[in-house]
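Appendix B, Record 12. Input sequence as logged:
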Amino acid sequence: MINRYTMFLKRFFTILLLFAFVLNSIAQHEKSEWVIGTSLAFAKFTDFQGTILGGSIVEQSPRINVTKYLFNAFSADIGFSTAAFDTQSYSTFDGVLRYDFGTSSSNRVPYLLLGGSYVVAEETTPTLNIGAGTTFWVKPNYGINLQFMYKFSEDRFESQYSHFYPSIGFVYSFKSRNLNPRLWDRKH
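Logged structural output:
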């Protein structure tokens, strides 16, 4: 278990350093519409499901996503990840709609999400995704994103179980944002 944890941390910091040198990251809002991100994620199954699948954790490295601000605190996000360094087969294509409570211009942007995925393992299985996350903007173009998703798979799809899907990573906004907005820049 410690070896897997050490490998996870090494991959995380490698991706972090790569991302820091390649991009500048920030949250999306009406003035900064496009965001790209990379993160570490894993699919977490129950221990019982893990005995059937060959393990209860499937590591995903890296997860790549693109987010577009739409309107009135809503954003669309698409993502892809695959089990590149894991013995289990698991790839996911995600599409979600995010609602950020009108805080998209803040330095901390919490959100709720609802969407779906196609999980490719033994067979391709659709899932319904619900979850929450937050992005912490630390530089005019850089942010840290934490997200927690639950992927619900109907019982009729025997090839996939419902599972949790947390991720942590970095995001980059293509337009800089003002981390210290002036009073007259705020909406009333």
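Residues 16-30 have pLDDT under 50 and may be disordered.
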